[in-house]
Every structure is written in C-alpha cells, then in structure tokens.
C-alpha cells in the first residue's frame, strides 16, 4: 500500500487539490432511467471535499466551497492531521494565490467542463492526460468494449439498441441462470448509472418506462453475480511506470450504491497476485493510450472464485485515494480497517461536538478499537430539519469488538 501523493507530485512542489465530484453526473444525459435530483443530498455529497485534507501536505493548498466546522478542524488536528492552506474556491483572490511555477492542480476528475466553468484553471499545470480521454475511459460502455478487445474475463452481457434486443438479451440471461440483472447507461457513479432488475415483473415495468421514452437507444444489460465479492484496485499510471498501490474490498448495497470500503480484506495471496497482474496489464493499455494519473478499478470475484477484473474504470481519484495516507499510517498496527458512512436527519440542529459525542456513546471505542470521522457534512432544510452525512474510518485489533462497532454504526439513525 502506497501514499498516492508521493507518486503524483514531488514533496517540494505544491499540490492544489480541487474537488469537482459531480462531474460524472453532468455527463449523464441519458433519459432512459427515471431520475430526480435531490439538491440537499447533492450539497452533502459535495462536502466530501473535506477528504482532501487527509491527502494534502501542510504546504499544499486545498480548494473548498463549504466552510468547515471549527470544532471539526480542531478534532482533526488533535488526531494528528496537519492542515494545509484552505482557500475558498470562488473568492476573488483565488487566482493570485494559486499562480505558482512550482504548483500542480490535482482535480478529483480532469474534465473539459472544469476549464469552461473556471477560467483560472487554464493558468495552472494539471495532473492527467487529456480531458477527452478521461471522459472516454469513465464511460461504462467503453470499459466493456476495452475488456472484450484485450481478452479480459468479462461478465455475461449484451449491448442493446431497441426493445426487441433488450427483451431477447434479458431472456438469454435468465436462461443462463441469472436471477437478477443490471442495466447500465454510459455515465454515473455510486449506483446512478445503473438499474438493478430483481425479476421479470421489474424488467417489464422498466421496459414499459423506456418504451414511452424512445424506441431506439443504447443500453448494456449484464447478469448480476449474486454473492460476488467486490475487489477493487488503485492503479497509478505514469509515463514510464504502472503500479498497483492498493487492493481493497468495496461494500455495496442491493442497488449497487457504495456503502464503504474494507482496507484489510482477507483475499488469498494468489488472488491478489492474479488480480494485480491483470491490473498492471490494464494500466499498460491505458498508458499506451495516453492516460496519466490514478485509476480506481471496480472488479468482482464470483462465488466460484473467478475474477472479472474490469467492471468499471474510474479514471479519477476516489474516496480510497484520499484516505490511503491515513490507512498507510494505521495498517501496521491495526489488522482491521474499514470505512462506512451514514446519512440521517434531525428535527433540530447539532454541531460536530454533539455528533461526535453521540457516536462515542454508541460505539464505545477503547484503546484497541477506535474510529475517525473523515467527513462531517451538514445542511439545513427550509424548515427546522437538519440533514447529515457522516463518514467514519474504523480501525481496530479485536475482531469481535471491531465488527460490533460496524454493526452498531450501520444500524444507527
């Protein structure tokens, strides 16, 4: 496991961290899935910009859109986080603060829209290949075709361009033994670019919906591998080097939405070796195409132990990327490290200290099993309700106590 900042930028240079997390949703122009934007939840998601504080060095600059709770900043410092310079992104003095020959902008994702919306970005050196290449690699359909072209193990699935093809593909998957399937559009992360089909009734309902929208389209339908484990890789692609810097296990819910990451999974060493070989092979292909930077690779291992190494390619930083410096600091002392988050609302407003106190009373950490809040996101509704997203990194030495903390947090409201 490596600290990705050490790979992305030399210690003597200044990294400018920029968190444009909603970019993939802006690319998602498909009308195939019913969608509704929850502006309040989007505000909470954007506050994950706090995670940049865990990868930044003290001499770096972190661009922020949301003012941080003072008590939360004090908490991070007490934990041992050395805070970088925090710059509010849209203030008039931002550009003059950032112009520096020894700096490098490291965005969450490198996109053309970033240039258009923020003129000051054009004055900076940016980590990554071309924005067009980044967008192409993040496209789920491109990912599938790349895996097919280069002979990677691929899941059972079909591209469909009309209703008849979609019906035929679904029946083929059912005949192959799949109880569930997943329908994908090109863009969207954390479950927003896919729809899980539970059964034939659900498929027919979906079919009626898209029939009202369009008679032609492009969709990808794949079998859903029940009981599969989600193995994930962090891949560094440089000019002359490809390196696997971490292998983790992602936890997702029944709708394919991200729930957390196990940083210390119990995969067999042979599985890690085989998986890493495939990741390096993928990295070399991306390298040849001109990509430079971090990639998060989503993969699965089915119940028979068969590895499908390319389910999705996230040609960008991920939550894992931002937390790796912290995990790297803990992993030699704590055999169990796991991240999770909860979203909840209250009929009254609570500050960070009150939330920390509630979690401490609930989880009962001790000298051997502890937790770190790595995002404290909060927004207010028009009424008196407050909405929260709290992201927690658990680290421990006692398996039973550690698992009890995860369960208690998962069940909390």
UniProtKB/TrEMBL annotation:
PROSITE patterns documented for this protein:
ATP_GRASP (PS50975)
Question: Where is the ATP-grasp domain positioned along the sequence?
Answer: 144-345
Q: Does the keyword Nucleotide-binding apply?
A: yes
Q: Which UniProt keywords apply?
A: ATP-binding, Nucleotide-binding
A Pfam family name for this chain? Answer: ATP-grasp_3
Instruction: State the superkingdom.
Output: Bacteria
Q: Does the entry feature the keyword ATP-binding, yes or no?
A: yes
InterPro entries, per this entry?
ATP-grasp, ATP-grasp_PylC-type
What is the protein name for this chain? ATP-grasp domain-containing protein
């Amino acid at each position: 496991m490596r600290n990705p900042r050490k790979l992305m930028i030399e210690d003597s240079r200044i990294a400018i961290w920029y968190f444009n997390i909603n970019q993939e949703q802006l690319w998602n122009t498909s009308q195939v899935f019913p969608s509704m934007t929850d502006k309040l939840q989007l505000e909470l998601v954007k506050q994950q910009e706090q995670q940049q504080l865990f990868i930044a060095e003290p001499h770096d600059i972190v661009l922020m859109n949301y003012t941080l709770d003072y008590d939360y900043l004090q908490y991070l410092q007490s934990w041992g986080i050395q805070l970088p310079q925090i710059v509010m992104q849209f203030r008039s003095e931002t550009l003059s603060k950032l112009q520096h020959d020894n700096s490098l902008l490291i965005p969450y994702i490198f996109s053309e829209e970033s240039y258009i919306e923020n003129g000051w970005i054009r004055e900076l050196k940016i980590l990554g290949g071309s924005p067009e290449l980044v967008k192409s690699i993040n496209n789920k359909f491109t990912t599938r075709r790349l895996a097919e072209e280069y002979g990677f193990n691929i899941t059972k699935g079909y591209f469909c361009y009309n209703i008849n093809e979609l019906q035929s593909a679904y029946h083929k998957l059912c005949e192959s033994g799949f109880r569930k399937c997943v329908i994908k559009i090109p863009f969207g992360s954390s479950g927003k670019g896919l729809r899980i089909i539970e059964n034939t009734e659900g498929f027919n309902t979906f079919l009626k919906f898209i029939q009202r929208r369009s008679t032609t389209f492009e969709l990808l339908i794949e079998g859903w591998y029940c009981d599969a484990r989600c193995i994930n890789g962090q891949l560094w692609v440089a000019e002359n080097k490809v390196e696997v810097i971490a292998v983790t296990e992602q936890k997702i819910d029944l709708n394919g939405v991200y729930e957390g990451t196990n940083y210390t999974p119990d995969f067999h060493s042979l599985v890690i070796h085989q998986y890493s070989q495939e990741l390096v092979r993928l990295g070399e292909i991306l390298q040849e195409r001109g990509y430079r930077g971090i990639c998060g690779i989503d993969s699965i291992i089915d119940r028979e132990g068969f590895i499908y190494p390319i389910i999705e390619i996230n040609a960008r930083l991920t939550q894992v990327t931002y937390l790796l410096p912290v995990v790297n600091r803990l992993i030699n002392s704590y055999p169990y490290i796991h991240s999770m988050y909860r979203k909840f609302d209250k009929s009254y407003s609570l500050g960070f200290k009150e939330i920390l106190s509630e979690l401490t009373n609930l989880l009962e950490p001790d000298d051997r099993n502890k937790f770190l809040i790595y995002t404290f996101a909060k927004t207010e509704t028009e009424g008196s309700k407050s909405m929260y997203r709290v992201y927690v990194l658990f680290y421990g030495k006692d398996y039973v106590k550690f698992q009890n903390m995860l369960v208690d947090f998962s069940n909390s409201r």
